Amino acid sequence: MIKDKPVFSHGFGAIRAKYMDYQVEYFKNNLYSKYVQLADNIKHPFNEFIEAAVEFGIVGLNIVLSFLIFVLWKTLKSNTKNRELILSGLTSFFVFACFSYPL
Fold it and tell me: Which of 32, 52, 63 minimizes the C-alpha distance to 98?
């Protein structure tokens, strides 16, 4: 899906609306794929960053990542006593965004 529309992508809700079409097309071309057991009607991808790239393109993914980097940079520069708590929360958010269903 990202490859078809990489810059501005398919739009909000594209995973629910178009993922099954892409899955059907994949299995038409790969009848004996080892991934056939994983085929399902999903409503949310396993990775939040993949969802951002599919629904908002590389532009939207860059905006999300820029925001996260900005918050991380501001937190690292601050001398607040809750700095470690904020950093641990941001780390947890990033890890869950990569491996959660859904975050």
Answer: 52
